[in-house]
Specification:
By secondary structure, the chain is an alpha+beta fold. The chain has 7 helices and 4 strands; from the N terminus they run H-H-E-E-H-H-H-H-E-E-H.
């Protein structure tokens, strides 16, 4: 079995030039914590994750701290969170995507290779062609859906 058989097509494109707010709204609406981002030629640029966005919403003083620290002394208001979220929403997605340590597969890649990536905590595996054009993606849920449908 290959990745092209199992992959789910990406139905809504998020572009590197789009404001992050568009990705945040998409992620909230679709209950997705990790989505691919492309350029206007449909070339895969990277992934944007809820984890990455939450990290960027931390106060600057916390981002400068090394290691895990207890910060229970911070008691921020909803307005302070909203201010950081609004600033984040205006930034282009291309500045925020993660491509480091991110693996992609081709349509003819054995499905077992994608399963290994997912088991190693890459929860979504982009499927690209030889020119890095995004064709679809595979996740645990994609595989379950494929098994259930009996394709």
């Amino acid at each position: 079995m290959d990745c092209g058989t199992v992959m789910a097509p990406v139905k809504t494109q998020l572009y590197a030039e789009d404001p992050a707010g568009q990705a945040i709204d998409f992620m909230c609406d679709k209950h997705m914590g990790l989505v691919p981002v492309v350029d206007h030629k449909n070339t895969f640029v990277g992934m944007i994750s809820g984890d990455r966005l939450m990290h960027l919403m931390l106060p600057g003083s916390l981002m400068a701290m090394q290691g895990k620290k207890r910060v229970s002394y911070l008691n921020e208001s909803r307005e302070e969170f909203q201010e950081r979220l609004d600033a984040l929403r205006a930034r282009p997605l291309g500045e925020l995507v993660d491509r480091i340590n991110l693996n992609v597969v081709k349509k003819n890649t054995p499905l077992s290779d994608a399963l290994m990536l997912i088991s190693e905590k890459q929860f979504v595996v982009p499927v690209v062609d030889d020119d890095d054009k995004l064709l679809g993606a595979i996740s645990f849920f994609t595989i379950l859906h494929w098994i259930k449908k009996g394709y």
